[in-house]
Amino acid sequence: MSTEYQPGFRDFQRDIERYLVSIGKCEKQKDGMTIFHGYNDALELMFTHYLDEGAVEPLVDHFRKWNWEWSYNKYLLELTSALEMTRDWASLLILWEKGVLRARKKHYNDIWKLEKAKPGTLKQDELMKVKTLLLEVLRKLKEFARVFGKGEDSERYEKMINNVQQGRKA
Q: What was the pLDDT predicted at 148?
């Protein structure tokens, strides 16, 4: 990391952008739009720096807003591992329930409503894919709850799993 820039560890996105500005990887377009060059490398570098410093709250806040409807990525998985190691249930719950589960549950429920209103509108393989992805995250959350000794949460996820398996709204 450039010795000229030290992140504030409060706003992950802003620290990435400030870092890129500090190393001259930012340009203003004629229309006023700012272009950042090397963003993915800076994201990786800043993510590692934040984890090394134990600044997980801004990471959780940032990554819970990503679109997790279809897949996970290494940032989600590495942050999850760090939260598991520190037994940070509250942050893990925010990341997975307010991030991943919220996106997948909304997607599933939207499709469920559409299919209820107009049966046969969607292909069965599309419906199954969305259902499978939702069940995957619910099972993962249920396992997290079990490992962290959160029985009430585990039961709540089990109810959602049963609803989805029976073709009901999540």
A: 96
